[in-house]
Every structure is written in structure tokens, then in C-alpha cells.
Amino acid sequence: MELSLGTVRAADLMSGPPITVGPDATLGTVRQVFVSHGVQHVLVVEDSTLRGVVSDREVLRALSPYLDTASEQARDLQTLRRPVHQVMDHHPVTVGPEATLEEVARLFATHRFSWLPVVEPSGRPLGAVTWRDLLGHFLPELRPEPASFPASRTPGA
After folding, report:
1. What integer is the mean pLDDT of 11-20?
2. What gap in Å lies between CA 157 and CA 153, rounded to an integer?
3. Fewer Cβ atoms within 10 Å of its own Cβ: the N or the C terminal residue of the chain?
4. How far apart are CA 14 and CA 18, in angstroms?
5. Does residue 154 fall inside a structural domain?
């Protein structure tokens, strides 16, 4: 089996369209997006431009540990109202759609990523490459099933 590292591009590997929220979306909304879409990362977009990314781990760290417990109080619920821009990564590593499979793989290995946004030069997000997408190139039986999401995967759109 010949590995074609130079001819496969990020656009060929990526899953999309991306799931996005605005920078003023609350952590409660983002938490619901994670559950309803079965994802661990969400792109934060404003005016069709990527402004940041947020992971389920970042949201979990920002929320009160007493949420959904018998000890929950009003101050714990307040953490659900925080805007996502307060906890998101404002400078995410991204790749363009023309990035090679080798470039994507090196970023995954170097930074220990599990997910990498694919963004046009203008900043408009196109999708993301996951480690499963990357492995699926070499082992087609691991390719994720096509999602049955609507064309716009922005909550409330």
C-alpha cells in the first residue's frame, strides 16, 4: 500500500459543515450543543469568521462542579450564563483546505490534537479534521458515517 501523503488535502479529509456558536453564546447553550450533536469541540464564529474554539473540557472547567447536584445553588447556575468568549481559545491552530495530509498529521503529532479546524484564508471555517478522519484515510473501515445534520449546523439558525 503506497501512502500518498502529498496529494491528499485537508479538504479531502475533513468533516463538515462545522458546528458553530457566536461569541456571546452562553456556556449552557454550548453544553447543550455538545450533547445534542455528540461533539467535543465547537467553533466560535462571528461575521462568518473564526474567532476561537472551545472544547467540552474547557466548558467543564468553567462550570460549577455543583451543577446538577443536590448542592446546586443560584451561584452555580450563574456559571451557565457566562459567554463562551470568556473561556474559548482565542488563537486556535488551524489549517487551510489545501494543507497536505502530512502537514495535518504533523500538527496532530506535535500538538497532540484530536481535532483541527479547516479554515479558508478569509477566516471562514469549512469543517474540521479529526483523528478518526485521519485514520480513516488509511483504514476506510474506520471512516465515520456521514452525519445527517442540516446544511447549517449553527444552533438556532
Report:
1. 90
2. 8
3. N
4. 10
5. no
Alpha helices by DSSP H, the chain: 10-13, 27-37, 56-62, 74-78, 101-111, 131-138
Which residue range is the domain that position 93 belongs to?
Answer: 10-142
Percent of the chain scoring above 70 in pLDDT = 85
Radius of gyration of the chain (CA): 17
Domain-located, residue 153: no
pTM strictly above 0.90: no
- At position 143, the amino acid (one-letter code) is R
* Amino acid symbol at 134: L
Domains held by the chain: number: 1
Residues 73, 77, 81, CA angle at the centre, nearest 5°?
Answer: 160
CA atoms within a 13 Å half-sphere pointing along the CA-CB vector of 1: 5
What pLDDT does residue 151 have? Answer: 43
CATH number, domain at 104? 3.10.580.10
Would 157 be classed as within a structural domain?
no
Q: Residue for cell digits 468568549? A: 85
Measure Cα distances from 52 to 3, 12, 112 in Å. 33, 23, 18
**Is residue 151 included in any domain, yes or no?**
no
